[in-house]
Amino acid sequence: MTGAMDGHAEDRGRVYQASGDQHISEHHHHVGGTAGPSSPDSVRLPAVGRPPAVLRDRAEVMERLRAGVEATRGGEVYVLYGMGGCGKTAVAYAAFQAATGEYGRVGLWVNASDRANLRAGMLAVAADRGADDGELLAARTGLRPAADLVWRYLDRSAEPWLLVLDNADEPEILRDGSWLRSSPRGTVVVTTRRAAARWWPGAELQHIGVLPRADAALVLCDLAPHSGTAEHAAQIADRLGRLPLALTLAGGFLSHQVLDPWTMEAYGHHLDEGERVQLIDRGAEALPGADPRHLVGLTWQLTLDTFEARGLPEAAELLRLLARFAPEPLPLTLLDHADISGVLPRARTETALRALLDQSLTELVDAGARCVQSHGVLLDSVSAATPAERTPVLDTTAVRLLDAAVPGVPDAGPDDPRLRLLVPHALALLRRVGEPSTLADALAVVTRLSVALHRTGDYLSAWETSRTAADVTERRLGAEHRLVLAARSRAGRALFRLGRYAEAESSLRDVRAAQERLFGVDDPDTLDTGYGLQLVLANLGRREESLALLRATVTGRRKALGAAHPLTLRSRASLLEMLPASQTLTEEDGALLLLPAECARLLGPDHTVTLGAAHNHAWALYLLGRFGEADEEMRLVTEGYVRRFGPDYPLVLAARQLHARTRTALGHVAEGIELMTDVVARRERGLGPEHPFTAASRRLLDEFRSGKWRPPRPPGG
């Protein structure tokens, strides 16, 4: 043995060299780890709320889409483009219904408005087409290419399908990772405001514009048939630019007036007298026609005025609150909280929400949880017209509601789709908030959301959330603001989990240097970044540098947080994993080997830190040659992990692999082979047969079977 560190780091573990032998860590990064997937979000039901009863005018485009979903066709990609509010989603919904109802295709609907929802939806598509939990977990944690997995199952689908990618207004998201592809087994329909052909090579583009005059009038008559004549309806349609969203809002208003019903003629007079708010369709490419936000603003303002006149001002306030968030599904649980009283009485939230639903100002949708969703054109229009004096309380209330929806102390656990639902709203709020102090509060919540995503294994969403949050707020809070640096630190930690070690090291070094200079070496934020950096250094093979930084982190956390704090105990548990076997006996005068019992006493036996400490303790015992003690501890740890994370979670497989080592070291070779056979099979399903982790497990299994495997030699042995 030359002493060169040429070992293989399995499962992103650390490579050790002790007593002349190399030992491979088995992914003991337990706390802050990932979790197994829960049941994926349903993609069989379009999240569109209430579709129009009759689809007006779109006969030509529907004929082309129907041709694309005929049983003998496949491989087509259609892009429906147009300005906000023109009814692209309604056309896609009609095509979806035709494909599933008339042509017997499987319908798959994915929200493509942001990276987190796109990835979650597409992985749910893979699950629908047969991907198992292990494969989905590997894709979610970045251990295998997610888009490749999805399209492999789409290409293998036994049934023909139609896939709708709705609200793809940032087509670069689809290009990153190559999410948009074609397949002979199905047809893809994309809805977007971005019309440039460079985004959609090989696709058939179809413009969805405003309605012809007669069809626009029919929309109003469909919704409010007793409010006036066809000519009155046509006149209103002209005033509203024949924009389907504006027509829907106007028709919803007219159809729900009970005490003092308005005629279409009266509604037209009010439109002529209303304030003309000049707004732009942000995010859309230049298209001819009237400004949709201006047109929509004419309709909802009349509705809110009526709410005020009828003694329901809470509806107007609730709509202004919704406009602080994104035009994506918003969990109803977020609104059902005492902190909403900053804007409207909690007891009146139900009534206000029903009023908005009745007027088509928002819709109920099922996105894996009960949600409300409002059109982006409407929300931008409402936000731009909100009185300046109302925005501080609206922002503060929105931040408090988001704060209540994010776990206070994020922990490792199963995949939680509800967290991803919060991401677009959190980032939208950062862009809306004006007051620096409120912005800082919002950033703290968004960073905590990133931590929660990280600890359920959604590393890509965690990275994108924290990175975007830092970018958005740095311009107003400054690059050296404590919370901006904390967000950058979390982004670096996520890069490490994604295997992007060089980027992670550079980012974390820069953040730690700034934190040391601004806050001191023993500041909790500095120590947290240092802990993340030492993980990166260990996986880059720089063991001495990593160990020195880890010891400094333990000392600093003891001083700053106390000996009983979970982060202090977590750092000490990492020493059990990092130290050579001989040093575990003398570290902390031998007290380190008592750490699992200390964690159980201070935190409880099922705490994440306690389980991780026991795992690392078993590894240390194994290196010391105390195979019987290590074997019993790994049996208990594995049982605890399976209860928490499920059988395919990488940490469970790493635990089983160490358990296989201890069983074999004790002479139970057949049991060791059985355990390793299961580990290899699960890794092959989840990661593929060529993945380095799979290959490492297969090598160990081969060594067990051939009788060539030898347990580690204890110090002095």
Automatic annotation (TrEMBL):
Q: PANTHER family under this entry?
A: AAA+ ATPASE DOMAIN-CONTAINING PROTEIN-RELATED (PTHR46082:SF6), ATP/GTP-BINDING PROTEIN-RELATED (PTHR46082)
Q: Provide the protein name.
A: Tetratricopeptide repeat protein
Q: Where is this region: Disordered?
A: 18-46
Q: Which organism's genome codes for this protein?
A: Streptomyces durbertensis
Lineage: superkingdom? Bacteria
Q: What is the lineage of its organism?
A: Bacteria, Bacillati, Actinomycetota, Actinomycetes, Kitasatosporales
Q: Which Pfam families match?
A: NB-ARC, TPR_10, TPR_12
| Domain annotation NB-ARC: ranges | 73-195
